[in-house]
Amino acid sequence: MRKPHPLRPGDIIGVVSPAAAVDESALRTGLDLIEQAGFRVRLGASVLERRGYLAGSDQERADDFHAMLRDPDVTAVIASRGGYGSGRLLPRIDPAALREHPKIVLGHSDVTFLLNDLVRRAGVVTFHGPMVANFARRPETAAAVLAFLGGDRSAWHQPGREIVQPGMAEGRLVGGNLSVLVATLGTPYVPDTRDGILFLEDVNEKPYRVDRMLTQLRQAGVLDAVAGVVFGEMVDCTAGDDERVTVRDVIAEAFGRAPYPVAFGLASGHGDGLITLPLGVRARLAGERLTLLESPFSEQG
Predict the structure, then answer these.
(1) Range 239-250 burial, b when 16+ CB lie within 10 A, else e
(2) Could you say which of 3.30.1330.10, 3.30.70.120, 3.30.360.10, 3.40.50.10740 is the CATH number of the domain covering 12-155?
(3) Helix residue ranges, H only, the chain
């Protein structure tokens, strides 16, 4: 795996909208927080475009993304938001643009499509963490993610809330949004989860829908080959009034006989979302605690 340089004060952070159209007010607030932290910002040409529910055409969004990847002055590329639309870009993405010049690429939710594809096809570490519009709602997320991207090692040991299945395993981190990962099945863009620590999170999905998605992953063989699984907070994944089951119940049943460790409640992605996870690096899952076993950044950084 190739690794990017860490952020340094004064670096340029490129901001793009690879998926849904973004609210300008939330975007501007997030940009202000980045600049107040000592970084410069470069906006993609279509970052505030709107074509229906998308931030411009597929080609415009892909061109923006490639331009930031190829710009030698840009140290990091952060998505403005997720929503929907990143998966439409996959056939248009040239992984060589990042492989030749590794740099930080950060996002979550729908951007899970891009993060895992770049790990697999470009062989470069990417980052699952807060996006620019998220900063407006919770300004502390900006400080947390920028500190991590600057190499803050205090964030390399992360606890979940509880153990679903005990044990210890090591492997490369992979995954992100559960709905997105299920949507890659049967396509050329399905992530390689073999012997990996699989991270799964989602929001606003009823327990039966989480059950359906986990069942599909299992029947596709994805859950047979992993070294371990760690879930996010699964925010607002609650049942209706007439359904006496929780998402935690669904997960416990799905992994009750798993021969590998399973943990629940890691705060990355939707929800508190303060934790940034570097995808493609080796990590250890021991009980409910996830620990990075290597730096996600180039030693030359």
Answers:
(1) eeeeeeeebbeb
(2) 3.40.50.10740
(3) 24-36, 58-70, 96-99, 112-117, 132-137, 140-149, 178-183, 207-219, 247-254
Mean pLDDT of the chain: 95
**CATH class of the 157-292 domain in this structure:** alpha beta
Q: Note the pLDDT of residue 301.
A: 43
Is position 100 annotated as part of the catalytic site?
A: no
Residue 257, judged by CB atoms within 10 A of its CB (0-12, 13-18, 19+), counts as exposed
Catalytic member of 17, 86, 109, 268: 109
270 is catalytic: yes
Other residues' Cβ atoms within 10 Å of the Cβ of residue 35: 12
Rounded mean pLDDT, 150-169: 91
Residue type, 285: L
Q: Which of 46, 80, 108, 201 is catalytic?
A: 201
Strand partners, 3: none
Pairing mode of beta strands 282-286, 277-279: unpaired
76 CB neighbour count, 10 Å cutoff:
24
State the average pLDDT over residues 220-235.
96
CA–CA gap between residue 206 and residue 220 (Å, rounded): 21
In which residue ranges of the chain is CATH 3.50.30.60 found? 157-292
pLDDT at position 300 over 70: no
- Enumerate the CATH 3.40.50.10740 domain ranges in the chain, comma separated: 12-155
Cα separation, 59 vs 21, in Å, equals 15
109 counts as catalytic: yes
Q: Please give the average per-residue pLDDT across 75-81, as a whole number.
A: 98
Catalytic one among 46, 233, 270, 288?
270
Instruction: Assess whether pLDDT exceeds 80 at residue 219.
Output: yes
Cα 140 from Cα 148, distance rounded (Å): 13
Reported as a single tens digit per residue, the pLDDT across 160-198 is: 899 999 999 999 999 999 999 999 999 999 999 999 999
Structure tokens at 250: 């669904």
